[in-house]
Amino acid sequence: MGVLEKISEIEKEIARTQKNKATEYHLGLLKAKLAKYRQQLLEPTGKAGAKGEGFDVMKSGDARVALIGFPSVGKSTLLNTLTSTHSESANYEFTTLTCIPGVIEYNGANIQLLDLPGIIEGAAKGKGRGRQVIAVARTADLVIMMIDATKKDVQKELLTAELESVGIRLNRNRPNIYYKPKKGGGISFNSTVPLTKTSEKMIQLILHEYKIFNAEIVFRSDCTAEEFIDVVVGSRVYMPCLYVYNKIDQISIEEVDRLARLPDSVVVSCNMKLNLDYLLETVWRCLALVRVYTKKRGEPPDFEGGLILRRGCTVEHVVSICYIPAIYILLNTRAGCTVEHVCHAIHRTLVANFNYAYVWGRSVKFCPQRVGLQHLMCHDDVIQVFKK
Predict the structure, then answer these.
(1) pLDDT digit string (tens) for 290-300?
(2) For residue 334, what pLDDT is reported?
(3) CA trace torsion 247, 249, 251, 255 (10° rounding)
(4) Residue 322 has pLDDT above 70, yes or no
(5) Given this model, what pLDDT does residue 245 score?
(6) Is the dihedral angle over the CA atoms 296, 301, 303, 309 positive or is it negative?
(7) 143 in the Ramachandran plot: left (φ > 0), alpha (ψ -120 to 50) or beta?
(8) Cβ(78)–Cβ(246) under 8 Å?
(9) Which pLDDT tens digit goes with each residue over 34-92?
(10) What is the rounded CA–CA span in Å between residue 81 and residue 84?
(11) Which has the minimum average pLDDT: 25-39, 221-235, 239-253?
(12) Beta pairing, strands 381-387 & 354-360
């Protein structure tokens, strides 16, 4: 029996097993086996087959955005509209057969936009070259899921399930679980919070399924067994996702209003070029990019060539949540853009000779303000660095 057959059998057994207190351990073991077989499917250990046309595209620009969706939802039309790159678009499915990159120039930043071929249901199992498409999506900083607004939420649910099955977690936080394998000493289990979604016995059963008999585990939040499996596997990718509903010119105003109010969602019409400016603004905020201007002594700031830096937008170790229309951005203030990052962007030897800096902008109480290396910068700040 191959890996696909084993996965199918386990999925059928999970579907027909009733969920209650008596079957929770059995379901936990089935989910652990399912995750292990799916990992084998993504990373086969046998000899590679014949090489085909790959989707590898060199990462360039300040950030990378991947377009994912079913065929004929408007991905190529969006790429042609937002960038100067031409991607063939027509009224039939699978017009795009390979990865086509484009560059969005916005707020002085170059954002790489990848038009990936349309995927179909079962892409995680290799149907329609879906595995290659999903592999490219794992390298992106942001996923734009293109959805046909006339199909409501069916495509969103199917695509989310496909990405979840290959280890891509959309708009979710990494589980706050400390896990470290050891060479001996057995399994050490502790929790700093009451556990209501799993138990120590369940954790031990999952570890035994993975042939792990010595490890240290500390639960710092009330996580589920599936989240612990993600920590054990260790290859899960947590990234932000923006759901873009296209073809809103073909549905009613009431339906457009409903879709626009959904979390992490934007409604557009690529053919009629409706709401594309708001889409670009939301993508900029999702990527958490910061533009910082530099200033030399005795000269005005250089507003022509600003530095584009990452503000530390991540779904790991969330410290605070900042609300932006249509999407919640998770910000890690400890990993924000500091003066030290600006100095590294200017020149790699500047930090060693750094004395202090003057900053103008929203990050300071008065202008100019003398700051050190750990000062957090805001968008459109001006900085002047002084060396020793």
Answers:
(1) 888 888 888 88
(2) 35
(3) 90
(4) no
(5) 94
(6) positive
(7) beta
(8) yes
(9) 887 777 766 655 444 444 444 567 777 888 898 888 888 888 888 888 888 766 654 54
(10) 8
(11) 25-39
(12) antiparallel
Tokens 């000899």 — which residue? 47
- Please state which architecture CATH assigns to domain 289-387: Roll (3.10)
Three-class DSSP category at 44: coil
Instruction: Name the CATH architecture for the domain at 63-171+238-284.
Output: 3-Layer(aba) Sandwich (3.40)
Q: Does the pTM exceed 0.90? A: no
Q: What is the pLDDT of residues 252-286, one digit of tens each?
A: 999 999 999 999 999 999 888 899 999 999 998 88
Per-residue pLDDT at 129 exceeds 60: no
Which residues sit opposite 219 in a β-bridge? 177, 191
**Residues in CB range of 17: below 8 A, 6 or more apart:** 23, 26, 27, 30
The Cα-based distances of 158 to 36, 108, 151 in angstroms read 22, 36, 12
Tens digit of each residue's pLDDT (9 = 90 or more) over 173-213: 889 999 999 988 889 999 999 988 888 888 888 898 888 89
386 within 8 A of 360, measured Cβ to Cβ = no
Please name the amino acid found at residue 358.
Y
CA distance linking residue 10 with residue 33, whole number of Å: 8
Dihedral angle over CA of 336, 376, 278, 103, nearest 10: -60
The domains of the chain are located at 3-45+175-235, 63-171+238-284, 289-387
β-strand pairing of 142-148 with 63-69:
parallel
Task: Give the strand pairing for 142-148 and 100-106.
Answer: unpaired
Beta-bridged to residue 293, according to DSSP, are 382
CA neighbours closer than 13 Å in the CB half-sphere of residue 281: 9
Among 210, 184, 188, residue whose Cα is nearest residue 200 = 188
Q: Which residues pair with 238 in a beta bridge?
A: 169
Closest CA to 61 of 116, 105, 117: 105
Is the C-alpha dihedral spanning 329, 178, 175, 237 positive or negative? Answer: positive
